Amino acid sequence: MGPAAAAAVPALIESLDDPIAAVRFPVTVALGEIGPAAEAAVPRLLKVMQEDINDEVAAGAKRAIRHIKPQALTAAQPADAD
Predict the structure, then answer these.
(1) What is the pLDDT of residue 65?
(2) Of 13, 28, 34, 42, whose CB is crowded by the most CB atoms within 10 A?
(3) Angle CA(71)–CA(2)–CA(37) in degrees, nearest 5?
(4) Closest Cα to residue 64, out of 49, 82, 79, 81?
(5) Can you name the CATH fold of 3-76?
(6) Using an 8 Å Cβ cutoff, are 34 and 61 in contact?
(7) Distance between CA 56 and CA 28 in Å, rounded?
(8) Is 57 exposed, middle or buried (0-12, 13-18, 19+ CB in 10 A)?
(9) What's the pLDDT score for residue 79?
(10) Residue 77's pLDDT is what?
(11) What's the pLDDT score for residue 75?
């Protein structure tokens, strides 16, 4: 897929709201394959990573973020509460 598919990012972001996990998971894969050109999807992927009831979809969102903007994962980590 790659950066040439960046035009599909808005539609892919919308698809992350699909009620069917079998739809959401491949969307996370596609966004990850687009890479940094899919940066607009990072806020939604962070939400999916933290809130999706399906573990595979949540893990897919995390992998996608690693390919798009890895530093977003560091920023999303909760601070240690001592």
Answers:
(1) 98
(2) 28
(3) 45
(4) 49
(5) Leucine-rich Repeat Variant (1.25.10)
(6) no
(7) 10
(8) buried
(9) 54
(10) 66
(11) 75
